[in-house]
Model the fold of this input.
Amino acid sequence: MKVIVVSDIWGRTEALSVLYLRTFKDYIILDPYSGSEKNFESEGDAYKYFINECGMEKYYAFVSSYIQEQHYSCNLLGFSVGATVAWLLACRITAGTINKTACFYGSRVRDFLNERPKQRGVDFFLAVREPSFNVLDFSRQLSAMPMVTLHKTRFSHGFMNSCSENFNPEAYRHYRDWLKIWANGA
Done:
């Protein structure tokens, strides 16, 4: 089954492409910058560019439109802002289009807890801490939702992204292996 990867604020990077070449047989990467590599110098630069040039609403509209134009079911995988987009899609798109969803450290999901996933199999990977909100309260709300499996990690936001200052090679290897199994239907 095709995996649609929804990137974070860094967009399409060489490291992201390498991860998915080694992890999935059939995938496409959607990013906020239409496939153009930006090579940001810092996370702050990436964040400012994302807010000024794209933003959450535009990114959601782009990914939503792409998925609704496809004529196949997919697995949806998102990271950070991409995880928030994936969450919204799992909540808003009718069953059958999205088979299952994995969201890694989608901290802005806290703004959309009034929405509930329509699809079974939403795996949510929570960072150990977030600077802008209480992770414990957030995790309680997520764990109470039907169709959501909460995975509390011991890693910081960005642990899967080698561009992030919070990249963790141990977590990367572990969750890359988890994603291989997830993508193949287990």
Summary: Strands lie at 2-6, 27-30, 74-79, 98-104, 122-126, 148-152. The domain at 2-183 is CATH 3.40.50.1820 (Rossmann fold). The radius of gyration is 15 Å. The first helix runs from residue 14 to 23.
